[in-house]
UniProtKB/TrEMBL annotation:
Residues 1-20 form the signal peptide. This is MalT-like TPR region domain-containing protein. One of its GO terms (cellular component) is cytoplasm. SUPFAM superfamilies: TPR-like. Belongs to the Rap family. The chain crosses the membrane at residues 388-411. Keywords: Cytoplasm, Membrane, Repeat, Signal, TPR repeat, Transmembrane, Transmembrane helix. The keyword Transmembrane helix applies. CDD domains: ChiS-DBD (cd22890). Residues 138-366 form the MalT-like TPR region domain.
Length: 534
């Protein structure tokens, strides 16, 4: 009898294992996997652990296919159940991921912070690391790159401690995204390549292919078009075979951008058509802003400014809950198109709307700060269960200190790696070069303030080059201000930040200014000095 029970138990365990694997992605056909997973869920007892895990797998499959609406419906049904703390964490986290994919970043942060509280309650190091990574994605999307970097380094350190290769790969991929956004392209390439290798080691071919597309985007930014195109073509067919419509759409769009950069109108039009057909396979109510922007660029290249403006206005009308950085590019492109078409009155009106959008962006940043303060109060407020409050306080403190320590180590190593070729070179400390740096910063700030009517704090925030601190309830940019006077200029000035700030002003202050040409000359002069030194 005992032997019979043992055999029965083993058979049930095998069956449970098979069922858990049925819904996992086969790397070949996501649509087929979704249908299979739905059939399996119907055979499982309602509200059972197996049914819960299978539903989460179905949510992930929906999202990979681009069907965020169906994914949310499944998660909402789960949240109505009496879930354990662990299952609440899993469900809440997936809600955050869905919101992130819909570009609803503040909402995604809310879910991710709720999930973080549940992870701290469970005192699970692995889940705490996941939460750090999730939060980093949200803060990065909102432009808070310092916080994102700190959280990612914390997450990566935890993943290494746990020898979690899968989590290391995901975190490296996100570190690559941050490096790309701050134009540290070589660091981005290194992170993406390491992430790709780890994804291959874990057998996650889909994630590996996604990382290849990210790597191609970096080569596009470096204007190494042949490398970018080669990488995309290598992974395009596997993505299509697996039914990863969102990633295929992303690849086609990148190919179109490359063709536009090479003035290949016919090829760009073909890639945009392919992207449009692929996009129709994705169930989403959101307008693809990036596709509209690329389409407008193509029309501008063709000289069809009326159609370009129509596409740009369509994108601007759908900008709610979308990436404000992308929206900013829409305004700039629309103003340029109107100026080329001699529509000066329309360009002036668009410029006024653009300035209003920047003010709203500033309010969004303030909302983000308020959101973070509110969450901090939640973390520090007394709980009904004293043990939970203790976990929250201890782990929050440890996470902060660990993040600061890791960030310090990261930047120290990075400075050492770049010291021979860049900022530490003694020739950069020559009086004439230091004076040139101060001149560039002063000119850039003058043009910014006089043409936009905005402050140096707004320039630091919007250029994402300088850190903005809160001191006694006021926003301050102490590092930025040190670059405005030869006496306070750091011993090892960050010439890259200076050039980036000046270029940002030149790109975004479209109103003519008598000092604009002088600033361009000074920037060119500084770049020439640096290149000669390197």
């Amino acid at each position: 009898m005992l032997r019979f029970l043992l055999i029965t138990f083993l058979l049930l365990m095998c069956l449970s294992s098979v069922q858990a694997k049925v819904c996992q992605k086969s790397e070949n056909n996501i649509t087929g996997d979704i249908l299979t997973c739905k059939r399996v869920i119907q055979t499982l007892p309602k509200h059972s652990d197996d049914a819960f895990e299978a539903t989460l797998e179905l949510v992930i499959l929906y999202r990979q296919a681009g069907d965020i609406k169906l994914a949310d419906q499944a998660l909402n049904a789960l949240l109505k159940q009496d879930l354990s703390t662990l299952n609440k964490y899993k469900t809440t986290r997936q809600k955050g991921i869905n919101a992130y994919h819909q570009r609803e970043y503040i909402q995604s942060l809310s879910y991710f912070h709720d999930a973080q509280l549940l992870a701290l309650k469970l005192a699970d190091t692995s889940l705490i690391g996941k939460s750090a990574n999730d939060l980093a994605n949200g803060y990065q999307a909102l432009g808070d790159l310092d916080t994102a970097l700190m959280l990612l380094l914390e997450s990566y350190q935890i993943a290494k401690q746990l020898n979690d290769i899968h989590r290391q790969a995901i975190t490296l991929n996100n570190l690559g995204n941050v490096s790309r956004d701050i134009d540290q392209l070589d660091d981005a390439i290194l992170s993406f390549r390491q992430a790709h290798l780890l994804h291959q080691q874990t057998g996650n071919i889909s994630k590996a292919n996604h990382t290849i597309i990210s790597l191609a985007e970096v080569f596009f930014k470096k204007r190494q078009f042949d490398k970018a195109v080669s990488l995309i073509h290598d992974t395009l067919e596997p993505l299509k075979q697996s039914g990863s419509h969102a990633q295929v759409s992303r690849a086609y769009l990148l190919l179109a951008e490359i063709a536009i950069a090479q003035n290949n109108i016919q090829q760009a039009a073909q890639w945009l058509t392919a992207q449009s057909h692929t996009r129709q396979l994705i169930q989403t109510n959101h307008v693809d802003q990036r596709a509209l922007l690329v389409g407008a660029k193509l029309k501008q290249l063709e000289g069809d400014h009326n159609t370009a403006q129509s596409l740009l206005k369509q994108g601007l009308n759908a900008h709610s809950q979308q990436n404000s950085q992308l929206t900013e590019l829409f305004y700039i492109a629309l103003i340029q198109s109107q100026l080329k078409a001699n529509q000066f009155q329309d360009a002036t009106a668009t410029l006024q709307n653009y300035n209003s959008m920047l003010k709203n962006s500033r309010l969004q940043n303030e909302s983000l700060y308020q959101f973070r303060l509110q969450r901090a109060n939640i973390l520090m407020s007394p709980k009904q269960e004293s043990n939970i409050g203790l976990y929250v306080t201890v782990f929050s403190t440890i996470a902060f200190l660990l993040g600061v320590l890791i960030s310090g180590i990261y930047f120290k190593k990075r400075r050492q790696r770049l010291s021979e070729a860049n900022d530490s070179n003694t020739q950069l400390n020559q009086p004439n070069v230091r004076l040139l740096m101060v001149e560039v910063m002063t000119l850039a700030l003058t043009i910014w303030e006089q043409t936009s009517g905005k402050t140096r704090i707004e320039l630091a925030e919007q250029s994402k080059t300088w850190k903005v601190n809160i001191d006694d309830g006021r926003l301050r940019v102490r590092t930025f201000e040190r670059y405005l006077n030869i006496k306070t200029l750091p011993k090892k000035p960050r010439w890259r930040n200076i050039v980036a700030t000046a270029n940002y002003v030149l790109q975004h202050c479209l109103v003519e200014h008598p000092l604009r040409e002088k600033l361009q000359q000074k920037v060119h002069q500084l770049e020439s000095v640096v290149l000669n030194i390197g």
